[in-house]
Amino acid sequence: MNILRIINSSIDCVSQFRRSQHPLKNIAADIIKARRLNSRERSVFLNLVFSWARESNLVNIFLKSTMRFFDGLSNQQKDALALNILANPTQNPELRLRYEKFLENLGDTRYVLALGDIISKELIASHGSQAPVIAKSLWQAPSKYLAFDHRMLKRDYLVEILASKNIKASFHPWAPHAIKVEGEVKLDELPHDIAKNIWFMDAGSQIIANCVQPKAHERVLDFCVGEGGKARIIAMNPCEFIALDIDEGRLARAQKRLAAFNIHYICADARAPHPALKASSFDWILVDAPCSGSGTLRRHPDIIYRLKSCDLVNYQKLQREILASAIKLLKPQGKLIYATCSLFESENQQQIDGLLASNANLKTYELPELHRTCVELLPHIHDCDGFYLAALIKTRE
Would you please indicate which residues are annotated as catalytic (active-site) residues? Predict the structure, then answer.
């Protein structure tokens, strides 16, 4: 294996990421294909690129304290230095040892510093002394969870099939149909009747989807359906289901994923009135709101370099506007589930507090599955991505 080739590929990957708006994983996939990296090279390359995303802020702090001319370097030169330290400790073992000592002296503070100024500031403001613990959890590889169509498959039968393939399975305490699997799982190698009815899905997403429990005659609106992950679980309930999203591409992917369900799709801005959406006409509304995505940093560490202060302000404004629109569509005694994949209080509890303060016809209610009205899901506690959810009921018009 040619480590220099991998380092150079990684430098090019990071450089392209800096210049574009594409996710790091997409750019990495393009480079793997273009340079025909073999399986071993691919593994080392991906590990290095995502190590850079998690750790380059730390490497830069270290190098700034070590090299007098560091501030005069270009971003590309800084990234090349970081990638060399992370990938090739034998090239300069003394520098690598000094870096490791630097990390040791920082303790768990290193994980907060690695998040950069914007995310670390928000995390500390939201979680105080627990910020380093949460930040550290964002370095851990996420567990793999399966979701399945419980109309077609019994949970115990599915576990038996997985065991026959030497796949260890266990259950999430808050999501009865979330099956944690360990080891390599290739869905296409399972029997066809199994494979077509199971899919990978984070436990936190499943928990949120399970909070929407419509009866057969009730109307459900998924206000920001995205690519339909949560809708796939909710639509297993016999109900009238409408899925809305502003992005045509995402909505098309949702339609493909949800082809087996009777769902009406609307491509529209959730903040604006739409003729198909009548006031006070929905029993359930899921607002899976656009947000910073800070709870998904284990999977998407490149958010560290994408998120700007103005983005947070824009997300918060958008969340308030979407919630205001959703309330108008909710029936009296209708229920609204608000969710984000954010760790920030400014996108979570503060939004709900503000909403309740300005709407006397809303109150929180206790989710029977979770025995609380608002829940913050954290990776190190709940074994899922970081999420927030709140349950609201409209008491009157």
Answer: 341
Q: How far apart are the first and last CA of the chain?
A: 67
CATH 3.40.50.150 domain range(s) in the chain = 203-394
Distances (CA, A) of 65 to 55, 113, 116, 371: 16, 15, 17, 50
Alpha carbon 203 to chain centroid, angstroms: 11
Give residue-wise pLDDT tens across range 10-33. Answer: 999 999 999 999 999 999 999 999
Find how far residue 331's CA is from the centre of its chain: 30
Distance CA 375, CA 330 (A): 22
d(CA 224, CA 331): 19
Strand intervals (E) in 246-329: 263-267, 282-288
- Which string of b and e fits 65-76 if b means at least 16 CB within 10 Å? eeeeebeebeee
Cβ–Cβ under 8 Å, residues 340 and 388: yes
Query: Which CATH number does 203-394 carry?
Result: 3.40.50.150
pTM across the whole model: 0.94
Residue type, 370: L
Tell which residue, 386, 126, 56, has the closest CA to residue 64.
Answer: 56
pLDDT digits (tens, 9 = 90+) for 84-135: 999 876 777 888 899 999 999 999 999 999 999 999 999 999 999 999 999 9
- CATH number for 144-200: choose from 3.30.1360.70, 3.40.50.1820, 3.30.70.1170, 3.40.50.720: 3.30.70.1170
Strands 282-288 vs 240-245: parallel, antiparallel or unpaired: unpaired
